[in-house]
Amino acid sequence: MTDFQDILNKPMSEIDRPKPYPVGSYVALVEGLPKFEKVGENQTQCVDFTLRFLSEREDVDKLALMEAGGINGKSIRHRVFLTEDSLWRAKKFLVDDLGIDDEGGAKRLSQLINEAPGRQVIITIRHRPAKDGSVVYSEISQTAKV
Fold it and tell me: The pTM is what?
């Protein structure tokens, strides 16, 4: 981990926008407990999981990944909205993709969320341009079981 003083003492000439992760699939690990947030204009409830990259899969451009700084020690946010119409996505992620046993549907969503840390998942990265087209963001387009 970088020391805070090192960050504050960094010359402006050495600060660049990180390159997006290359498109493709990666194996990632749920790191720590997620954060519950309210986001957007409507303050929609969601849960943000931190997924730490473990490895890239064969469909990732190795040269582009190297140019982006690799994945060692890096993570990405996976946001899951918690609305009545989107709860099925939370269930898919937790039960189908992370492999958490829901005991035939008897467990509560909160229990499954608490069991997520330390579990592995395959994530697929896509690129999404900013609204003004000035930047390209990496985001998770789908998740799957390892």
Answer: 0.89
